[in-house]
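URGENT: need a sanity check before tomorrow's submission.

F., can you look over the Fibrinogen C-terminal domain-containing protein record below? I want to be sure the sequence and structure line up before it goes out.
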Amino acid sequence: MGDCLDVFNAGFITDGIYTIKPTNSKEPPFEVFCNMTDGGGWTVFQRRVDGLVDFDRNWTSYKEGFGKPNHEFWLGNDKLYYLTNQGNYQLRIDLGNSVRDHYFAQFQTFRINDESDNYRLSDLGAFDGTAVQYNEGGIALSYHLNTFFSTSDRNNRESPQDCLLEAYGGWWFKGCGKSNLNGDYRYSFQSTKSINWFDLPGSWYKIMYTEMKIRPAV
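Structure tokens as predicted:
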């Protein structure tokens, strides 16, 4: 099975950890968390819930992945590359804040390139969702389109120096940024160093929960 939609179509309709192997993968089969809500078949590649996992990690950690799929984790950029390049995928992001408001952002297409291109965010389609105000249309992530992935030890950013000092974790950093869901969990408010999503309704509240997941596009 190449992703969680294959798992779902095989009759496994419960959220949980399953083993998959993308059709173009050079890696052995690996475990993923499958979210079977909203039509089922979502392959989760990032989650933040309580700050117990450190996301300020080096290039190799983000390349290979860290954390546990049923808790806080990053699946790994190599795995994400194999997944998003075996077909056309859509992206859904769920966000929750400190006053229990819930928002989502969905993008019609999503793809990253391989390590030779620094895992560039190479495709991000039309936006739909509630994680926006002032009709910005998903700019929090679309602003970062065609940006290289960066970590503390691999600086591929085009940011001003003062913003480089504020950056935390691994992300597709650009300028001073409009999002970073791998930011520092400890902040009680959104800033350039914390978990942040530009122009989120109630943006003065701390983002407590994030989940990023993909599914084949219809």
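My own read: The helical segments are 4-9, 59-64, 77-84, 139-142, 161-166. The domain at 4-216 is CATH 3.90.215.10 (Gamma Fibrinogen; Chain A, domain 1). If you see anything odd, call me.
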